[in-house]
Write a structure and sequence with these properties.
It contains two helices and seven strands. The chain is of the alpha+beta class. The protein is globular.
Amino acid sequence: MAEIKDPENTILMELKGGTVTIALMPDVAPQHTERMKELARAGEYDNVAFHRVIDGFMAQTGDVEHGDVQHGDMEDGFNIRMAGTGGSDKPDVPAEFSKIPHARGSLGAARSSNPDSANSQFFINFKDNDFLNGQYTVYGQVIEGMEHVD
């Protein structure tokens, strides 16, 4: 088990295959880090699907509005077509670009074409995706359990 150096800024994500440990980067992206912690503490990420998975690229999740596969978000239940189109009821978070690369296991803020439109969704890179550097906020790194994301 990885040594957790900063429990306050560590996310434990339970996947079917096991636990994924993510170290958040409050010194690099404080607003994104705080948003994730706020939503996680409120249970907003519980049962939210990975709605966009591109082999060899990344896996995206975090649509707390439309992504809950256990409870559904509409009266008729979960709708995969809606997953990925929503966010939280909180305001969007402005970009916090840094020199941290989009390396394998890094956590990036998903957003629309507007750099300041990140909200609750995020992605985990399956490999080094340097072409994303400086375009999407990096605010975490998987430190254990990447095999479960894979």
